[in-house]
Amino acid sequence: FTQVCKFFLSSHDFCVPLQSIKNFLQVRRYLYILLPIVCLLLGLFGWLASRYYFSRVCNFRSMDGEAHGYFVYPGASVDSVLALVLADYEVLSLSSFRSECERQQAKTFKEGYYRLPAQLGSRSFVYRLRTGAQTPVRLSFNRNIRTNQQLASRLSKQLLLDSTALVTKLHSSDYMAQYGLTPQTALCLFLPNTYEVYWSMSVDALFERFHREYTKFWNEERLAKAKSIGLTPEQVYTLASIVASETNRVDEHATIAGLYINRLRKGMLLQACPTAVYASGNFALKRVLKKHIEFDSPYNTYKYLGLPPGPIRCVEASVLDSVLNYKPSKYLYMCANPDFSGTHVFSSSYAEHSAVARRYQRALNQRRIR
Fold first, then answer.
1. What is the CA 364 to chain-centroid distance, rounded?
2. C-alpha distances out from residue 275 to 235, 272, 290, Å
């Protein structure tokens, strides 16, 4: 029996299964050790991946898949801004956001307008609002601005500006002097258009922005044209403000400008009705009467020779170019067309003008326009 056992134990075919069992038992022992380590590493990798995802890729997800913009006012706390954003965004990990705020030491956010993409990570969110990396807003105003107060009101409604501070600058002779202007010519700095600016910009930064636009418009070519007419840029703007007030018809701007330039060169009173309206302070006035043209004001060109001390409204660049490229003529008079088409009848003699004016007055009376 002993010999038979030795034979089987020494047999090659029988030793192979025994060795395999032995190896399996050794591997299983290592698995008991390695498996917890692998699970721990996988868990750690998943945790790091989630932290990276929430921090760098997406922690704020727009509910409608669209970008949203927010106005953040001075001193806004982290919680107040978060509450604002939660109306449009889903926060995947609030702890990630809190951790990022602590890491960047963000207790408040800078004022400004911020347009956030449909999804962004906590790091980008906190960094933008902590450093003030805001999105530009569109600032616009049109030719209906007539006074410094109206301009300040219009701009302050679109920006984080105090209208009183803006009016103070516009009415300051010393402040406007740095731009070569006066409180009366302050509007010359502003060309109606749509501009991209920062919502929280300061008053000084706003003036600097418009001064850059002003100097860009008044290039050497335009300055040379103004000089050839015998006008300064501010006088061109003032004349253009009268032209723009006379009509909305773009095709008549150059003709009206030429008419007033003729009167200036002859030393005649401009006798522009819009200046009488401006002097009266009643900008809704529909009919200029004798009492209006007798109103004592340096802006009333029925009483005072030459151009008014400043513009009577804001003026688009196109109207300024109409003055600079005025249409030469012999016209000295103009009257609104009695057919109320919005056009004018131009005359070179007072007799012709008087005949048209009488027809226009009769038309006003028939329509009971007072």
1. 42
2. 14, 6, 14
CB atoms near residue 192 (< 10 Å): 18
Tens-digit pLDDT profile for residues 110-132: 999 999 999 999 999 999 999 99
Instruction: Please give the span between the terminal C-alpha atoms of the chain, in angstroms, as a whole number.
Output: 140
* Structure token pair of residue 51: 């932290």
Neighbouring C-beta atoms of residue 342, cutoff 10 Å: 11
pTM comes to 0.83
Per the CB < 8 A criterion, the answer to whether 96 and 61 are in contact is: no
- Which residue bears the tokens 């401009």? 270
Closest CA to 273 of 256, 254, 250: 256
For the segment 51-72, what is each residue's pLDDT rounded down to a tens digit?
Answer: 777 888 899 999 999 999 999 9
Phi, psi of 115, deg, nearest 5: -105, 115
Phi and psi at 90, nearest 5°, equal -100, 130
Instruction: Determine the Cα–Cα distance for residues 234 and 300; give it in Å rounded to an integer.
Output: 18
Q: How far apart are CA 270 and CA 301, in angstroms?
A: 6
Question: Which residues does 313 contact at the CB level (< 8 Å), separation at least 6?
Answer: 143, 144, 145, 146, 187, 241, 244, 245, 278
Taking 50 as the threshold, does the pLDDT of residue 5 lie above it?
no
How many beta carbons lie within 10 A of that of residue 136, not counting itself? Answer: 13
Helices and strands (DSSP H and E) totals, the chain:
16, 9
Which helix (DSSP H) or strand (DSSP E) does residue 230 occupy? none
- Is 240 in contact with 322 (CB distance < 8 Å)? yes
User: What residue ranges in 124-174 does DSSP mark as E strands?
Assistant: 137-141
* CB neighbour list of residue 116: distance below 8 Å, 6 or more residues apart: 60, 62, 67, 68, 69, 70, 85, 89, 125, 128
